[in-house]
Every structure is written in C-alpha cells, then in structure tokens.
Amino acid sequence: MNGLNEVLADNHYPGRGVLWCRTGDGDTLGAYFLTGRSRASQARALRRTPESELIVAPSEARAHDHLRHYVAARQSGRWLVFGNGEQVATVAERLDSGLVPALALDGLDYEPDPPIFTPRLTVVADGRDAGQAWFGAARHSSGTRTATNRLTLQVSGLAPGEGVLMSTYRSDGHAVATGEPLAEVRIAAGNRSGLLEELWTSLPLQLRIAAAVFSPGGLAEADIRQAAPAQS
Asked: What is the set of domains in the chain, with CATH numbers?
C-alpha cells in the first residue's frame, strides 16, 4: 500500500477524485478534489450553498455546463453522498426514496465526453456507521464496447492511516487515460486539517483547483482549499 502523496505525485493529471479514509486520530472522513488543464476547467470554484451542499460552480456567472458544474457533496438524511458530477444529486434522491446504497449507485453511466469517456465516481457514506461507505464507478470499456462497466465497492473497518482513492484520470505527463478502478492508500495525516494539507500538497501544483474534507453529518463544516480561479 503506497502513501496518498506517492500515488498522487506519480499521476501527472488525476482529474477529479474521491477519498474515504481514517486519519491517525481515528476520525473517518471523506474528501473530494478537482484538478484541471483547460481554462474552462480551471475557472471553477468549490462553494458551500445555504443548504450546506458543496457545489462546483463557475468562478464567473455564465451558462451552466452539466459536465463541469454540479453538486459535489450532499447530505441526504443519514447518507453523505459525494462525487464528480450530476449523478451525486441522482444518488441522493434515490437514497431519499428508500433505496439502499448499492441500488442507489446502480444504473449510472460514464460521461459523454469522447474520446476519454470520464468515469462517474460516487461515494455514499453511512452517518450511523462512520466506518462504512460504498464506492460506485461507472466506466467505459477499455475496448470498443459502449456498454457501461459498473463497479460497486463496499468499504468498512478502515484502520487509522488507511484509505481508498478513486480518480478519473491517469497520466504519465504525456498521454491521459482513464484512471485505475481504485487505489488503497496510506494516510500520513494525524487529523482532519492535516488530511486537507496532505491532499492539497499532493496534487499537481499547476493543475490544482480545489479540495475539501468533510465528515458524515458535518458537511456544513467542510474544510475547503482552493487556488485562485482562472478567468474564463
């Protein structure tokens, strides 16, 4: 198991990512991050709404882009839902209707952005059992098949210093490809503020947009770090 900083430092373009982990003090936390290469991607901010959601929004008012602007985290009753696209709201609504996490994550598709077909990554964390979470990934086949590959992973019993990470992309500095399905990582941070620092400093400096750390039931108190937004 490699450290979070090693895994991210080895990836020249991780895109967007979700993390579920336990810090050294025993706190179980979720995290979300954005990196971007284009001016349109970098002209975004991670904001807290009056409803205590976290949204990815344009840094300047303009028409909504459903692939770039979305609810990134929402508390839905006992469930904390976070991820990299509009599916977060869909999954939260399904949970509100009574579906269990595995079914709420079912039926999602990857993003319609050829040629890379960005995966949809979603985490559902249980506020009544702080150690338990479900990851959902909707991914394009590595071949020519267009049907969505859907991965659902239940994570529980993390020890302090353990985490699970998913990112949308993988790059060696030249080519960009869909990220690996998941990575189990070591967390060096001893507490919540340390986790945000560890995550932020592990992201590629020139591509950083925003990162947030939060706990189930505590989305209103999410810690957010962001770069000065680029002007579109």
From this structure: 2-226 (3.60.20.20)
